[in-house]
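Practice problem 4.
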């Protein structure tokens, strides 16, 4: 009873007919998945062959070589949809702190309510600040009166000194007292300004239009300078911050329209416009930081939501493309095996671009005309001799330039 054999399996070495390659179009040309033999199984097979082949038949050297399939590198124009995952962030977000100490005497805010810039949120004992302001004004009046009094004294001293009734030193002392009085008046006015500002700061106001996130103090609580009092956030417009791969960084421009999608509204797209593009690429992630502004008049979007930004199509013209099955991931990066004219597989490290329907763009390491191995190359060594297998139907796809179809054909056969 005869049994068909996969072209990726070794033929019977003890066969009287010798090793036979499968013919394209016959039942023997159907590829099956390579059978990976463990070390134990390999040793058992070797022992069996050594004991069973007693007729002295030799093994064909070419049949010992790994059987592989190859595909040519093609140069194509790829259309790649540029998308990125980011997060919604508030353009303005602040924790308002106490600029004066005092007791919380009134709360005018409600968490979650909308506020307008300048709206009072809470008060820190403004009555005390009004009294201190009144005292400062009295000090200014006192200092001003002192200046006027000393000015009259200086005037009299000048008259007496002109008639030689008073000495020059007495006039100098009076003028010094006048300068001191002016300094005290300036200090009193400065204190008045400080107290006036303290009264203003006793009423904590919203610094921008937004919403109250939370308050951190209660009525009657005494707070020190620097204590956080209330947190507010701006929600309209809102920003989406995301990162774009460096290969697509040239596609992003200021003012570009972006479609933003969020999980709470999966069937809805929110329009945005790019406003910020970082001048540098992040050396750790090799990405470009981008911000876009989203209109949020309906208040549906909230800071912290994950968002997907769709920047549209990016066309990569004249790029090298290979089937994704050709690329192996190794410690030193992405690797392919290139087949030369003597059927030797050369290992190359490549840089990849965009992925699309079983194909991958190679930005560095390959050129038109190279042939890359797409099957049977996972365990190859650099420079290893191989056997090339190309079924007729795959060969026809290659001749017609249909890389995707030929790769799909090999997938179905293996």
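Answer key:
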């Amino acid at each position: 009873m005869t049994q068909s054999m996969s072209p990726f399996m070794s033929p019977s070495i003890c066969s009287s007919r010798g090793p036979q390659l499968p013919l394209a179009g016959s039942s023997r040309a159907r590829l099956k998945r390579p059978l990976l033999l463990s070390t134990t199984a390999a040793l058992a097979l070797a022992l069996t062959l050594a004991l069973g082949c007693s007729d002295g038949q030799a093994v064909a050297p070419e049949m010992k070589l790994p059987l592989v399939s190859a595909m040519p590198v093609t140069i194509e124009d790829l259309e790649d949809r540029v998308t990125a995952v980011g997060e919604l962030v508030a353009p303005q977000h602040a924790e308002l702190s106490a600029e004066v100490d005092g007791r919380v005497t009134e709360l005018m805010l409600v968490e979650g309510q909308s506020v307008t810039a300048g709206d009072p949120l809470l008060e820190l004992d403004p009555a005390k600040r009004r009294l201190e302001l009144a005292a400062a004004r009295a000090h200014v009046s006192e200092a001003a009166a002192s200046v006027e009094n000393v000015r009259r004294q200086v005037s009299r001293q000048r008259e007496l000194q002109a008639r030689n009734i008073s000495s020059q030193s007495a006039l100098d002392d009076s003028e010094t007292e006048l300068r001191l009085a002016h300094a005290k008046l300036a200090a009193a006015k400065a204190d008045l300004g400080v107290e006036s500002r303290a009264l203003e700061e006793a009423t904590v106001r919203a610094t921008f239009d937004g919403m109250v996130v939370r308050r951190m103090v209660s009525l009657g609580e005494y707070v020190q300078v620097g204590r956080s009092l209330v947190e507010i956030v701006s929600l309209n417009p809102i920003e989406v911050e995301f990162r774009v791969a460096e290969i697509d960084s040239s596609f992003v421009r200021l003012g570009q329209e972006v479609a933003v999608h969020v999980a709470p509204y999966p069937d809805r797209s929110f329009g945005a416009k790019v406003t910020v593009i970082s001048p540098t690429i992040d050396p750790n992630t090799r990405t470009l930081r981008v911000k876009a502004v989203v209109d949020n008049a309906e208040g549906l979007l909230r800071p912290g939501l994950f968002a997907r930004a769709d920047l549209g199509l990016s066309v990569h013209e004249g790029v090298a493309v290979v089937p994704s099955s050709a690329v192996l991931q190794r410690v030193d990066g992405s690797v392919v095996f290139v087949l030369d004219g003597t059927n030797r597989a050369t290992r190359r490290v490549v840089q990849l671009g965009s992925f699309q329907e079983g194909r991958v763009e190679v930005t560095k390491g390959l050129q038109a005309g190279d042939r890359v191995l797409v099957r049977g190359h996972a365990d190859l060594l650099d420079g290893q001799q191989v056997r090339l297998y190309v079924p007729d139907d795959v060969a026809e796809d290659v001749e017609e330039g249909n890389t995707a179809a030929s790769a799909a054909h090999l997938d179905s056969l293996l």
